[in-house]
Amino acid sequence: MSEIFTSTAALALKETIRAIDTDEHGSEGSKAVFTKYYDVKTMSDNYVEDYEIAGTGLAGEKPEGESLPLGGIVEGPLTRYNARTYGQRIIVSEEAMEDMKYDKVIQAAKRNNRSLWKLVDFDGVLVLVRATNTSFVGGDGKPLASLTHALPGGGTYSNMMAVAMSPSKAAMYIARAQLRQQVGHDGLIDGYDIKSVVFPVQQEGVWDEVLDSKYDPTPGAFNAVNSINKEKITKVPVKYWNNTTTNWLLRTDAENGLTFFWRRKPKSNTWVTEDKTMMNYGITARWTRGWTNARSILFSNA
């Protein structure tokens, strides 16, 4: 909660100020970065649950005169998304509203709006920051990026590069091959395609070269074709991912990956505290985020 009184913004009462340098405001929702690496959805209740089910595996040969081989369905973990409420309130005294000579000083509604949308981005990026942190796990008891995600029928699979690599054409070739041999819920190879690469902004220049160059960006091989360029992979630099400059991940076309659920989008309210004649500006929203299917990413913990 913030409070604005004449004593906290005394200079704004003077006519001598030429310019007020303050936070930029605008359509904060349109500036959000999280929408570029989350699937954004809505939820109609205070929580939603996703359930993993493994299929029946390979069909078998049926000897003549014998019954068909039996297949089975195996239950996996349950992932719950719980909506949480976030918000902020700014209190402005009646005197401050009367005496402020510069509208840009208060701008309570815009400041609240900016603060909440910034929080959305910072909350969303925590999933990337904590991708390998075993204190923050998904439905299978593993963090987002793990070498030992559990399969419902037993066994494990990995959604991390076996050897972490810096951004390069070679890294993309290895990652692409690994993803095309990724197993599904029943442990059989399904294979996935790359949709986008998500990375800290410090890597943007090298990803421009790796993904946008028509020819091989590797020194000494400039006449070779860059086959990665043909896949039209989207680049997603994340300015809020600031716990590393070396990690990165690939998003795949696997369903139910990184998901952001709105329970209620940002909503503003204003009211007066009668006994103190204070104007209150508030904003709240409800959301949750996480993942169900870790196959939706391949992580390089470089």
Could you characterize the architecture of this molecule?
This protein is α/β, with parallel strands linked by helices and 302 residues long. Helix content is 18%, strand content 29%. The strands form four sheets. A five-stranded mixed β-sheet has the order 1-5-12-11-2. Strands 9-8-10-13 form a four-stranded mixed β-sheet, covered by helices on one side. Strand 8, helix 5 and strand 9 (234-238) form a beta-alpha-beta unit. The longest helix is centred in the middle third of the chain and has 22 residues, at 108-129. It is flat, with a radius of gyration of 25 Å.
Average residue-wise pLDDT:
89
Considering DSSP H and I runs of 4 or more, what fraction of the residues is helical? 10-25%
In total, how many beta strands?
13
Total number of helices: 5
Question: Can you tag this structure with a few keywords?
Answer:
302 residues; alpha/beta; four-stranded mixed sheet; 5 helices; 13 strands; 18% helix; flat
Task: Put the structure in a nutshell.
The chain is an alpha/beta fold. It has helices at 94-99, 103-106, 108-129, 169-180, 204-212; strands at residues 2-4, 39-42, 47-54, 74-82, 84-93, 149-150, 156-157, 194-200, 234-238, 248-252, 259-273, 278-290, 297-300. The chain has five helices and 13 strands.
